[in-house]
Amino acid sequence: MAHIRAGILGVGFMGAAHIEAIRRIPGAEVVAVADVDIDKARRVATALAIPTVYGDPNDLIKDTCIDIVHNCTPNGSHLALTRTALEAGKHVMSEKPLGMDSVETRALVEIAEKTGLVAAVNFGYRYFPLAQQARSAIQSGRLGNILLVHGHYLQDWLLYKHDYNWRIDRARGGASRAVADIGSHWCDLVQHVAGRQITRVCADIVPIHKTRLRPVSEAETFASAGQVPTVETVVDTEDYGAVLFELSGGIRGTFLVSQVSAGHKNALVFEVNCEQASVRWAQEEPNNLWLGYRDRANEYLAKDPNLLDEQVRKYAGYPGGHGEGYPDGIKNLLRNVYMRITDPSVPVEYPTFLEAHRIVLLVEAILASSRGRSWVEVPEE
User: Cβ of 13: how many Cβ atoms within 10 Å?
Assistant: First the structure.
């Protein structure tokens, strides 16, 4: 792979995850970071031996040494920084959501298409080896036609009233929180595995905590608020959501999302029931794929390259018995992105801006359904 130089916008939880993943890709190098909190950016750069630090993300984008910009900033700055990067001729890897609403994401899709640059979004759960194996088993037809799809994505990091993060603030995170933040991952993964789009939804979403104690100072994602000065703040984004949905072809499904479910740290689970067998995968137990049967004993397929379908083996980086998890999914995704930058003839095997735009349309349909207490069609574009 040719040498590719990356710049990271935002040095929080996801910025650090991107840096670690990039450094596992041959030929890739992180040459600069930027954060509006320049002292924090300097601490991260020093700890991780990154040579260049910017306090203004736009200065990083202007850096002619950088080939790809990773936008790991809060949601509200995705549109402006991603647009600036594309217009500056940089490839872009954006955190989700691509934008605050479908007007923003549609604009970014159009800009990306005009530039012809690689433009991807981090829906990294697709690229766990056994998630890919589930997709392969379904797409091959050997499990039979899909009958039902169901699952959940549960967390507890916002369980208490004093838990707070910028995502709770509609102005910074967007109109939806639990559905947009984690439900979007579940929907993207299930659509990818099933090979079908969610076409209509019927949803119920609510904030469990009507008010929260917002710290005077910023709180990191997944960090405990602790004993710090707070102010009581009205919450207008959801902690919980339950969604009935229909996939293309009339297949029915359900999913539940929550960020207030004690004991669940990152419990993403999907199950697809097919005519001949069912398949279930859980992100917290990523190295086992459950296969269920009516007429014989159920099975667990362990993550082992020798046991996976041929086209899936590239996503298993280690031999059987050597567990792979969250960092490996991001690494696998970024490897696909970087290979496409190096060689434009390589197939697109990453979530595109158009796919991310469609996820935002889906989230907006879920919000509209909950408000109207009715089924809502998901727009195609």
Answer: 12
pTM exceeds 0.90, yes or no: yes
**DSSP-assigned letters across all residues of 241-281:** EEEEEEETTTEEEEEEEES--TT-SSEEEEEEEESS-EEEE
**292 and 204, same structural domain?**
yes
DSSP symbol at 128: S
Q: What is the pLDDT of residue 217?
A: 73
Reply yes or no on whether the pLDDT at 294 is more than 90.
yes
Asked if residue 142 and residue 58 are part of one domain, the reply reads: no
CB 75 within 8 A of CB 176: no
pLDDT tens, 35-49?
999 999 999 999 999
Q: What is the pLDDT of residues 103-121, one digit of tens each?
A: 999 999 999 999 999 999 9
- Whether residue 134 contacts residue 192, with contact meaning beta carbons closer than 8 Å, is answered with no
Residue 224 has pLDDT above 60, yes or no: no
Return the bridge partners of 206, or none: 240
Number of domains in the chain: 2
Q: Of 199, 177, 253, give the one whose Cα is nearest residue 365.
A: 199
CA distance 133 to 129: 6
Helices (H), the chain: 13-22, 38-48, 57-62, 78-87, 102-115, 129-140, 170-173, 178, 184-194, 326-342, 353-372
Contacts of 90 (CB under 8 A, 6+ apart): 7, 61, 66, 67, 68, 69, 117
The phi and psi torsions of 280 (rounded to 5 degrees) equal: -135, 140
Average pLDDT of the chain? 96
Q: Which domain holds residue 92?
A: 4-124
Distance between CA atoms of residues 38 and 34, nearest Å: 7
Domain holding 92: CATH number? 3.40.50.720
pLDDT in tens, 113-157: 999 999 999 999 999 999 999 999 999 999 999 999 999 999 999
